[in-house]
Amino acid sequence: MSEESDSLRTSPSAASLSENELPPPPEPPGYVCSLTEELVTKAREELQEKPEWRLRDVQALRDMVRKECPTLSTSLDDAFLLRFLRARKFDYDRALQLLVNYHSCRRSWPEVFNNLKPSALKDVLASGFLTVLPHTDPRGCHILCIRPDRWIPSNYPITENIRAIYLTLEKLIQSEETQVNGIVILADYKGVSLSKASHFGPFIAKKVIGILQDGFPIRIKAVHVVNEPRIFKGIFAIIKPFLKEKIANRFFLHGSDLNSLHTNLPRSILPKEYGGTAGELDITAWNAVLLASEEDFVREFCPPVSVCDSILGQALPPEGLASDAQCDDSLRAVKSQLYSCY
């Protein structure tokens, strides 16, 4: 019998399916590494990633998810799980905890994660509150530029800004290059007033820092703050209790001294607004990237789901986060901190 005949005999045709029976979905494509040789070497040295063991490690994490958290609704694709392994330097237990936290964070903050797609955030994107610069830094890190002064609180709540940040991180982390190199944040606090700063209280700080440190598979290599007014001392006083020491040590406050900024981020990669030579700051290119990804986010960005009780019951809250009661207690001190610094 010919090969074609075998195929016809063993594979049901569309005509043979009942009216209510659909063909099985195609298997996801196998993982194909897109890293350059240089990045493969970097991943080996910094992340303990061994190409010859990569798929074995992914399978080990997949088996752990199925065994320890069978009701966790998550993608188990090679490429998706690899993000969490890289973010935790191929420590299986820590990668699993990060994956659980990732879904738990989304489940616990519906105001941010419900209906999370680019078309729902057009106002934030158009405001220029955030963008990704077109050039990476010397280490290959993409630069996420955040400008709080572009936000007008009367237009929409602060949670819309956080949604835009998370959406951007989701898009960035799709790149294996970003998974290995990490990102840099450039925050411009020029013109941030006391009234605007008061929107960023302990509850918001706890949630955001919890996601960035313990609930998202990305490596934050540095946070450069420029043009910060005196009020920023109050903002940082709110943030600092939630920061791990390693992350706190990666904050650099430059004030209006752009020469200080340029010792870390060369002028050649910065827009002229920050003393650079890379032209004017353009938000349209990154906005177009996000809006062009609408279908991907609608199809692949899972909604918050219930996480199995066995994992969440045993898992400690993300390290470094205060309880809600602690946040309530500290809220009373926020305005006095801000006023004293203003």
UniProtKB/TrEMBL annotation:
SMART domains the record matches: CRAL_TRIO_N, SEC14
Coiled coil residues, start to end: none
The record's InterPro entries line, in alphabetical order, gives: CRAL-TRIO_dom, CRAL-TRIO_dom_sf, CRAL/TRIO_N_dom, CRAL/TRIO_N_dom_sf
Q: Where along the chain is composition biased (Polar residues)?
A: 8-19
PANTHER family assigned? ALPHA-TOCOPHEROL TRANSFER PROTEIN-LIKE, ALPHA-TOCOPHEROL TRANSFER PROTEIN-RELATED
Name the species this protein comes from: Nyctereutes procyonoides
Protein known as: (raccoon dog) hypothetical protein
Q: Which SUPFAM superfamilies match?
A: CRAL/TRIO domain, CRAL/TRIO N-terminal domain
Q: Where does the CRAL-TRIO domain start and stop, copy by copy?
A: 117-282
Which segments carry the region annotation Disordered? 1-32
Q: What is the lineage of its organism?
A: Eukaryota, Metazoa, Chordata, Craniata, Vertebrata
Q: Name one GO molecular function term.
A: phosphatidylinositol bisphosphate binding
Q: What Gene Ontology terms describe where this protein resides (cellular component)?
A: membrane
